[in-house]
Amino acid sequence: MAKQLKLQHSESVVMHAASRIYAAYITSGKVAENSEDEWIKRSIREAVKMAVATDSAVVSDDEIDSLGY
């Protein structure tokens, strides 16, 4: 049975970043057979870490508007 996913926009953005990170690990030869899950989880953690760092460092237009600037 196929699973249906409905990702929120922010989840989709993190998933896309994680997939690029994971692809880089595959291309560099780091992902051995039967270790895919470990590398996928690592890629997701790194993508989330990057997203949090970006959110902390950048003030978006929406955030400026909501702060009354």
Query: Rg from C-alpha positions?
Result: 16 Å
Largest sheet entry: none
- Count of helix runs: 3
Strand content bin: under 5%
Secondary-structure blueprint:
Elements: H1 9-27, H2 36-57, H3 61-67
Helix pairs in contact: 1-2
Describe this entry's structure for a reader.
The protein is mainly alpha-helical. Helices cover 70% and strands 0% of the residues. Helix 1 (9-27) crosses helix 2 (36-57). The longest helix is centred in the C-terminal third of the chain and has 22 residues, at 36-57.
Concise structural overview:
This protein has 69 residues and is mostly helical. It is 70% helix and 0% strand. It contains 3 helices and no strands.
Which key features would you list for this structure?
69 residues
